[in-house]
Amino acid sequence: MNTTNTAASKRPLGFWIIGAFALVWNLIGVAMWYLQVNMSAEQLAAMTEPQRQVYEATPGWLNIAFAVAVFAGVLGALGLLLKKRWAGTMFLLSLIALLVQMIGAYVVTPAWAAYGPVGLVMPAVLLVIALFLWRYADKVKARGWLS
Hints:
The protein has helices at 6-9, 13-37, 41-46, 49-57, 60-81, 87-108, 111-115, 121-142. It is an all-alpha fold and 147 residues long.
């Protein structure tokens, strides 16, 4: 007779959908990071002057924070899909790095002058998703779905 807890071993479809969404979302983030750090002179020239000023004022440590945010997010998503307890830790690291990146961008670059209040919409969406993924991973860990 099998005495393992079937409730902990069976995950609902939503678990897999959220895990797949998290992976795709963070892989898109990796692509955006790659494009950011490998921008060509032609792409830079195609930017508006305020966008170019923000790009040129961005210090390397902000790109490192960006990389940590997206790669930790990918690891968190993989951890979730592989049912690993460390998924939540990776999502928390991603969230912290995202906060550093977003706050840093508005403190050390002319992002506010370039984008104004409307420029905060996407960072807010990113933060809400990162916070959700971190909390979700903790919730499913508490349910025994991660080992």
